[in-house]
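Worked example (supplementary).
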Amino acid sequence: MKPGPNSKLPPLLAFGAHPDDIEFGCGAVIAGESRAGRQAHFIICSRGEAGTHGTPKQRATEAHTAAALLGATVEFLELDGDSHLEIRAAHAIKIAGIIRRVCPGIVLAPSLVENQHPDHWRLGKLVRDAARLARFGGLKELRKARPHAIGQLFYYAVTPEAEPPDITPVLIDVSSPEILRSWTEAMNAHASQTQARAYVELQLARARLRGLRAGVSHAVALFPNDPLVFNSLEQTGRGERSF
Amino acid sequence: MKPGPNSKLPPLLAFGAHPDDIEFGCGAVIAGESRAGRQAHFIICSRGEAGTHGTPKQRATEAHTAAALLGATVEFLELDGDSHLEIRAAHAIKIAGIIRRVCPGIVLAPSLVENQHPDHWRLGKLVRDAARLARFGGLKELRKARPHAIGQLFYYAVTPEAEPPDITPVLIDVSSPEILRSWTEAMNAHASQTQARAYVELQLARARLRGLRAGVSHAVALFPNDPLVFNSLEQTGRGERSF
Amino acid sequence: MKPGPNSKLPPLLAFGAHPDDIEFGCGAVIAGESRAGRQAHFIICSRGEAGTHGTPKQRATEAHTAAALLGATVEFLELDGDSHLEIRAAHAIKIAGIIRRVCPGIVLAPSLVENQHPDHWRLGKLVRDAARLARFGGLKELRKARPHAIGQLFYYAVTPEAEPPDITPVLIDVSSPEILRSWTEAMNAHASQTQARAYVELQLARARLRGLRAGVSHAVALFPNDPLVFNSLEQTGRGERSF
Amino acid sequence: MKPGPNSKLPPLLAFGAHPDDIEFGCGAVIAGESRAGRQAHFIICSRGEAGTHGTPKQRATEAHTAAALLGATVEFLELDGDSHLEIRAAHAIKIAGIIRRVCPGIVLAPSLVENQHPDHWRLGKLVRDAARLARFGGLKELRKARPHAIGQLFYYAVTPEAEPPDITPVLIDVSSPEILRSWTEAMNAHASQTQARAYVELQLARARLRGLRAGVSHAVALFPNDPLVFNSLEQTGRGERSF
Amino acid sequence: MKPGPNSKLPPLLAFGAHPDDIEFGCGAVIAGESRAGRQAHFIICSRGEAGTHGTPKQRATEAHTAAALLGATVEFLELDGDSHLEIRAAHAIKIAGIIRRVCPGIVLAPSLVENQHPDHWRLGKLVRDAARLARFGGLKELRKARPHAIGQLFYYAVTPEAEPPDITPVLIDVSSPEILRSWTEAMNAHASQTQARAYVELQLARARLRGLRAGVSHAVALFPNDPLVFNSLEQTGRGERSF
Amino acid sequence: MKPGPNSKLPPLLAFGAHPDDIEFGCGAVIAGESRAGRQAHFIICSRGEAGTHGTPKQRATEAHTAAALLGATVEFLELDGDSHLEIRAAHAIKIAGIIRRVCPGIVLAPSLVENQHPDHWRLGKLVRDAARLARFGGLKELRKARPHAIGQLFYYAVTPEAEPPDITPVLIDVSSPEILRSWTEAMNAHASQTQARAYVELQLARARLRGLRAGVSHAVALFPNDPLVFNSLEQTGRGERSF
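After joint prediction of all chains, the assembly is encoded as:
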């Protein structure tokens, strides 16, 4: 999927703890944004080297293929390594530096629910903190980059358990066949993972279930870190309730 | 404030338990919608006859004046009377009938938090149930009116205590001087109430506080009954975080 | 599906507000219990006469067919009628009378989450209260029936929105092909409803998603009203975590 | 108390931050499991050296005596020392290694409620993370040990404040006089602690209160990390409600 | 226990759904207030006629005896009868009338947690609403009585399950032997109930457990309906934390 | 504002992550306590060197001026530096050492809500843990200082978002003109910050809104870490409800 020509949309910056997290958790949303012309960039914080399946090299290759299928670019960020991530100020500052460099409007990060892979919520918390640090003018490590205020931070949930129960989600309609196709291909690009577990079926079932509830084909839930600000009710979309 | 010419927006239908609830709870939002050309209609379910100040007649007059200042029309609905409201299926069906008649896109009702005036949350619950009943084709009392599915139900909070802690709000920017003026005038139109208590100051302070947090002059929080559905992230507004 | 010979299991008593609620919400569990030899009895509190599709007569017929497919018996209870249910002490006492007559070990009722069909949660609250009243020896309306203490009350969720966020569910593995077949047939027996909406797909997708998470084919979540009491850890099953 | 002959039950592995935490928090459950023939092993992560009473040596001796009274074996794990525990990936990996070595079906850890001794919830979080890491085949530090998936992780609460409000507990009936005697003796074995505070009375009162509520003599609450999976309702025990 | 001479304290008004609810739920607090010279008045809303044990006459007698032991006066209020209570505006208005007559500073009512006896939480909600209605000058049924604003509404929990998880309690130290004696006698005065169940032991164990946690002998938790307002930190008591 | 002569009140110890946090979050409370004669001491854990405005030197000077205006003394504590704070056992122990030295009755710390400046909640958690460690007699780093048990730990919220939704606050009436004047001056003393943002207006609006709700001029909410213990209901202040 190639990004369209809408160069006015500020870039989207998505963070994943492992090479497949973004694709499984919110790949359909990325596909939709790319299609709408928004530039999408992925920061992947390990090579999945602690996983049972796939070598680091394979997984990096899969990540590049998958991102391309979604119309996104990829960058690997060295933090503590797969299953070794810790919450450190230095990590948050590094991530804040990336935010200053990319100047995103939207940032996506794994949700903060702790009963999931230990790297997921830690990365989410690091990104949340980083989104604040990116605005602080006096941070000495980042003096060379101009402070940047993002438009919104949304969390994605890699698995249903990771959906935060205390945030009202927004649902993104991803029913377009083109989006669903790109998403499915991108998930399947992580062949080292999908051979072992029914991840693709799990994600498609989740999106279908959300879609059925919302009266569309498929939808993906994102969880805003802060209340959404609108100028009028016309902008607030419509409510999910269909059943 | 006169409604503008945007006749394509589906009407807004707002419910209040007492003649001043809508104005104090979300009058600024109404003013903004009217200004944007959306038709607004108020259903007021008592004449405030149990209140300490103001006669029912005075209060009805004040309600008409205030609604006009916000560009809205007004209708009184007889349920059980001020401070006597009960949750009855017959009430919900009556309200569903109004929804079928007005065919609103947006419905506003008082929040469901129970630690406030006993009529407020009961009316909120009746409206929530009614928004479902309005869609049920076999409801015998309403056979003559076509089923209607609203776009979204938002709750407003008449006081800060009434803000539901378990729903992520959306914030509506009401910073336009014209909106703030109409809103303030509409609140002051309820002179029987404002002489006794600092209601107007309370509401303006709330909106100013929300505005300061969101980086605008004034904002009002509304609480969606169901997750919002969008076609893309561009539609999701921006996050509140400013401080 | 015919009940097996295990006559020692105390009966299961399931309550539904409409003719198809039990089947859609927890029909697979019923099928499994029948198969294990437990007697199952359904109390249906309306004929779905307010719904858009299906006549009361059709719906009663569908309910009987569906229950038979699940190995359960059916009884209609006249309360206030579809979409007219109110929470009244008299209703709870009537239901308590049924509990005393049937002497169930397990009671199933719709969940208490209010943002669903207004009859669902009201019936759930009535059943919850009735489960207490069934034990009170002095209740004059029920003097002729011996008090009965049920073993446990579980809530089922007709739709995903109805899943209570504040109760840790138990998951019932319903992966047996025989159970899935009976359940699917029972849902499809409500042909007046399934022709209009993708209800069957919704429920199968929910059960598949729960199953994928739990490492089995399909599972259904039930929500206990009170903590479960066990004699040892061996009885506590296993944890869901699979992904 | 000597473990019985039921060698088929997978072992139980319990983690404590201090030498007396397991005994006070869930010693009665351990006694019951030992009696049922399950092997129990304790990992104690400090010698209580920051406490006001008791030397490290005394406390280690008390821990051995108490564990023996409960039919369990004991092992000390050096992490950061009493009142110095930090959440580090290296700790979680060490704990995951122990899980791989012991291959438990059930794991017990202190609850995650943060308003208690700082070591308690940190250890709980480390164990929760470790239970995942134990399954990841590529974790280089643990390459020599085969991945292991536990059956369930339960949290125990050393004090009432530590009971997690957002998890529905399961209650384990510990009313057997033999269990209560072993438990009481095991708590009293921590003489350096019980001389200073009414810990034993506190725990017995808690268990008695839970028991009274559940209609038995004494019961202990455990808090499952994940929903419990059952094959049928017969396995779900009974509800607590007695008063 | 005779009320002391401190006539300056505004009266305490306590509501119970059944003749023994106040004594079991917060009798120790009443005893303490009486002893401090505060007048206490009980409104009992049934004669326990649906209970398994005790005739209405016996239970009324027991209630009078128990109240006297606590230094309180008693009044029976006819609402819908035991196990028949419904939430009706007329009930709330009646209760508001009593509040206007008694002019209490403190009001006590059963907690709002719904998973307890159906009369308990309904009465709690009626009292909460009534505490507002008591202030509304225009309420026609109460025109003859002057509006009254209470100082605070506290909820008590008849059983541990009834403790509201979302309100931070205040703990009242009831360790004085005189208070504990009066309370125990008052509970035992409900002989028709205590012969059947270990209610007295349950309550004393609860109070002892709270006391142990707070570093005193016995304490009772009350749950404020609204935040407490103080003039300085010196007035805020001390924190509970002792273990 | 000079502390009054009431030397019997145990000191108040307030922690701030940045030079202006205490003043903005709860300066009015400090002013009131000083005026009542309580000694107040501030521990400031950075010089705000990561902020966009103000040099570390300016900010330290501002902090000294502001504290003096509130009648408090100031001390800087070197931890990890502004925007670099991490949760380390060594930090908590350092803070525990300060608690042992100052022997406060009341401790104030920033709230634990994580969606605010990353240093705020981390400091709050460190102080919470430290308040426990201060009591542990065997902690080797603090052997020279006598263990100290504080009376209560309250959290303050620097911004509205930081108010913890799960703790019932206490409200401190700060309506005295003298208190409001001292507070306002102290906030304005942080000129490097107030020139850039409407911080002073934000805080005064918050306090006014709380005051309006509580029927006084201005009030500040504090959030107790543990339930408050009282000897009688007379000590529990009054409820907030005014609107």
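Two points are worth noting when inspecting this output. Chain D has seven helices and nine strands. Chain D has a mean pLDDT of 95.
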